[in-house]
Amino acid sequence: MEEPDAAEKRKSSSEFRHMAERFLSVLTAQRGASEHTVRAYGREIRDFALYLEQVLGEQGSISAVEHLHIRSYLGVLFERGLTKASAARALAAIRSWFRWLAKEHFVEQNPALLVSTPKLPKHLPRVPSVEEVNRVLNSLEERQQKGADATEPIAWPERERVIFELLYGCGIRNSELVGLNLDSVKWGDEAILVRGKGRKERLVPLGDEAAIALRDYLPARAERLTAAGKGILVHEGPLLINFRLRGDCRLTTRSVGRIVKAIALSRGLAADVHPHTLRHAFGTHMLEEGADLRAIQEMLGHERLSTTQRYTQLTAGQVQSVYDQTHPRAK
């Protein structure tokens, strides 16, 4: 009878799993993918590798994978109850994996290219109006002046105001926000240095209100760190720190999501508001005020202009209003 350790070693040495792990290592080391991307791709690709073992056998070859296997796998995902969006994400990960396999000559071609992406409903996420966002930001400023209140979902008024001002005022992603360090703020340039997807860096303008919020927050941050015996972080380290100063003190994306949702709900915004909603609001409101689409693309850190162009999908009422106001034959 085979020893358990030997059986486990044999099971984990299939070519499918081996190639999956090699690709994920490359994704981390060479391509500079974010931790979130590596984690998401890892989940999708490892699950597909396991499916291939079941279909083609543990001794099967990666070169034997055809587009029909991928289509069948998508069918399995739908049987599990996954949405079209989830299946599309899985397919995107598989395509990326096989693109690398083809580039490294482990397979002759990418079979995933022959599999159509599930059709997704086209819709823009609802964003709060300029007035709604201003109401929240003004209330945070007032709360900061009054101090914390046990009835409010605001543990640290100065920090919470900075979170909203940077997400909406700079249009950065949640992951980019928590990744900011003290030296990311370039006061002389009136900008912040943001490290985005693929470790690409960009300078984003720092608005007056965001700058004021930061200047109010930094002394409170320094006082809290000094009192906790972590004075070494007063002049370096993460910009946004967690309330209890756990670990390296850096605030997490999960905490930011929880803070944004709680405050938004307490101010009468929709229940589906999250950090990315404020990013969409940034792009939408700037476009409505006449900002150039390519400038918005640069500030949002979109690789493709088509991603930014989602913000140009106006409602029928907006289109009619623009026509009535600008076309000579409409007057």
Q: How many DSSP H or I helices?
A: 14
The mean pLDDT is 84
What is the number of E strands?
3
Largest sheet: 3 strands, antiparallel
* Proportion in β-strands: under 5%
Cα distance, first to last residue? 89 Å
Q: Give the helix/strand class.
A: mainly alpha
How helix-rich are the residues, as a percent range? Answer: 55-70%
Q: What gross morphology would you assign?
A: globular
Q: List the secondary-structure elements in sequence, H or E.
A: HHHHHHHHEEEHHHHHH
User: Over all CA atoms, what is the radius of gyration?
Assistant: 24 Å
Low-confidence stretches: 1-11
Give the strand order, joined by hyphens, for the main sheet: 1-2-3
Which tags fit this structure?
3 strands; 3-stranded antiparallel beta sheet; 331 residues; globular; disordered N terminus; 4% strand; single chain
Please characterize this protein's 3D structure:
There is one protein chain. The radius of gyration is 24 Å and the shape is globular. Helix 2 (15-29) runs antiparallel to helix 3, helix 6 packs antiparallel against helix 7 (157-170) and helix 7 packs across helix 11 (275-288). A hairpin with a 4-residue loop joins strand 1 and strand 2 (191-195). The protein has a three-stranded antiparallel sheet with strand order 1-2-3. It has helices spanning 4-12, 15-29, 35-56, 67-79, 84-103, 130-146, 157-170, 174-178, 208-227, 253-266, 275-288, 293-300, 305-308, 316-326, and strands at 185-186, 191-195, 201-205. The chain is built from 14 helices and three strands. It is mainly alpha-helical and 331 residues long.
